[in-house]
């Protein structure tokens, strides 16, 4: 069997220099896009407009709607429950220590993932239209 030839390229300075050049090019592209296509900021704030209903951006809509499920004094529990749920989902790969890696054989992890994604999407849609 013929062995694969491995490149004798060193990490420092050869490979690192190439990576830095690519990062610099991407940085210049992002700066150029921001310079020539600036983001629109919208209308300035008008304190005399009493008809304005503040609403969070789209990525916070599910949390905004989740807090609406806990009215009055229960709102504190909603504020405490959100980070606990997010931490549980974040640490789920470390909690579920099965040897199996195929998603079809990890029913517990896949169920938690599916429920959390569905709840986020549904709460986001409800929050958008409320």
Spatial separation of the terminal alpha carbons: 66 Å
Task: Calculate the mean pLDDT score and round it.
Answer: 88
Main sheet specs: none
Q: How many DSSP-defined strands? A: 0
Task: List the helices and strands in order.
Answer: HHHH
Radius of gyration (Å): 24 Å
Given helix and strand content, the structural type is mainly alpha
Helix content percent band: 55-70%
Q: What gross morphology would you assign?
A: flat
Q: How many helical elements?
A: 4
Strand content range: under 5%
Question: Low-confidence parts, pLDDT < 50 over ≥5 residues?
Answer: none
Write the layout of secondary structure elements.
Elements: H1 11-36, H2 61-68, H3 75-95, H4 107-129
Helix pairs in contact: 2-3, 2-4
Write a structural description.
It is a single chain. With 130 residues, the chain is mainly α. It has a domain at 58-129. The protein is 60% helix and 0% strand. It is built from 4 helices and no strands. Helix 2 packs across helix 3 and helix 2 (61-68) crosses helix 4. It is flat. The termini are far apart. The mean pLDDT is 88.
